[in-house]
Amino acid sequence: PSPPPTKHSIEEHEGQAQVDDDDNNDQNDDEQGEDAQKAVVDARAQFIAQFSSPQFYIVYAVVAIFALIAIVGSLHALYCRENEFFSAVRIFDALFDELNVIFDILVAVHLYFLHMANLSFLFLLCIAFIVIPMFVSMVQLWWEDRKYWQSDERVNAWLTRNASKLYLLSFATGSSFIAMKIANAHLFGLDAFSMQLSQSKYRAFQRKKLFSIVMLKNVPQLVIQGIVLSLISLTGN
Question: Could you give the percent of the chain with pLDDT greater than 70?
Fold first, then answer.
């Protein structure tokens, strides 16, 4: 029979077990640290990949175009042809509204390529809440012209020359409010961008986007995007 364990051997065994436990804990901590570091690296890579995707090249191009127009317009107003009415602020204001439209379009494109059956209806809704507000804003532009602007001879004469251009710009930018900002920026002193609408009438028209843009577009788009994120998280995609 083996001799009974002594007090010293028991303490030695417990000490070794404690050392083994400490080594295992250190190894687990190292593995958890590596996993966390890898997760951070993967998250950064995914974040960078999102902003280097072809979809965002459109955003970068639009920002570059508007910024270039604002810079060149400012230089032109200062050095080439004195133009104290030029407003770079309206160009950048139009840029922010245009980015809002572009991001909604990118969301719709993303929904289309997800190929999820339960998202097809949301895709149609997303498109509807881009197109409908655009046409509603154009109707608001038409109504404002007929009701308030025709009494102003200068503005009425400008609309006679440039109404088709204004509606075409509204369609191209996705909103008549964006078109009105550009048309009243006095860019390069050109007649097409010098509507000369009074500040009070300009602000009165811009306030009308609370209905056509905020209520008919921004709010529904946020709801749709929230539903999409919930469905994607539930399906694990």
Answer: 75
